From TrEMBL:
Gene designation: glmU_1
Source species: Blautia obeum
PANTHER family reported for this sequence: N-ACETYLMURAMATE ALPHA-1-PHOSPHATE URIDYLYLTRANSFERASE (PTHR43584:SF8), NUCLEOTIDYL TRANSFERASE (PTHR43584)
InterPro entries: GlmU-like (IPR050065), GMPPB_C (IPR056729), Trimer_LpxA-like_sf (IPR011004)
Name of the protein: Bifunctional protein GlmU
Mannose-1-phosphate guanyltransferase C-terminal domain segment(s): 72-144
GO molecular function: acyltransferase activity; nucleotidyltransferase activity
Amino acid sequence: MLKDFTVANLLDLNETIAAELFEGKTYPWEVLPEISDFIMKLGLTLNPSEYECKDGNVWIAKSAQIAPTAYINGPAIIGKDAEVRHCAFIRGNVIVGEGAVVGNSTELKNAVLFNKVQVPHYNYVGDAVLGYKSHMGAGSICSNVKSDKKLVVVKDGDEKIETGLKKFGAMLGDHVEVGCGSVLNPGTVIGRNTNIYPLSPVRGCIPADSIYKNAAEIIKKN
């Protein structure tokens, strides 16, 4: 049921600097059009003894590790103790949480990564929210535009919600594990503590505490 995929049921707001962004929202994708303005507002409040502002709209925690080959376009906030590795490409409108890892050749755009998220190898994460300690295996991506370019609809069985969004990557609850090479299609929402098998094409709403083998085989964890 779609009520299982609300902000409250997916995400621990104590594990993000962006908690205020989610206030008053029922579903996490409602924040996507507001990320850019929120970063600009929040960045101005960050303690300059802890964050360095670059180019006017990129705030990087002084404890973060940023590879010299990484590219960060603003607005963006890189949290404390985060690691942005070789050739990472942050295109803008991105919040990288504390202790998060953005890896080799990973591309981020209009996304919120909660604390300790890992997107460490060849990942694309666009128009997405990744919950606390969620992890995307090597080569897994969030596909954010439908092939027919129509607006994204979130579906769970016979229930559906018209999002009004053309670009919608994926919403991952806390502690979600996405296997290597998987594609999360537009409108994918994955509940807390769920594992996605490698090489999976995923769409729709996947229940919490599950193992996703394929669309016809979703097993509840013991």
